[in-house]
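Question (not urgent): is this output format expected?
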Amino acid sequence: MKTEFSIEADSPVPLYEQIKRGIKLKIVSGILLPDDKLIPIREFARLLKVNFNTIVKVYYQLDKEGYLYSRPGQGYFVKRTFREENQRDMELFKSITDEYLKNATDLGFSIDYIIKSFNLLQKKLK
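Got this back:
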């Protein structure tokens, strides 16, 4: 991949979810561009020191969610239309998130508290 990639083994967030979120972030932020090839599964697993099946699961889920596409025998690639189709949604999401964070911090909530609240909410939504 184009940039460094790290995961936190002691995080309460499962490894596959950390990896998946990291790839999504690189796609929606434009670090990974349409048709960029992702690191081969075995190589990525070796790099991150995770099980091969973890990366298989991540790539498969990102494919199903519309972030990636695969070419048999060639690997996984960033889907061309994802960024273009979702740019407006991402701008709206960023605007709402920025406003929420500003309001929460103005009310005296710490970033740590906000993150913990999001993590709890995420667990409830699953």
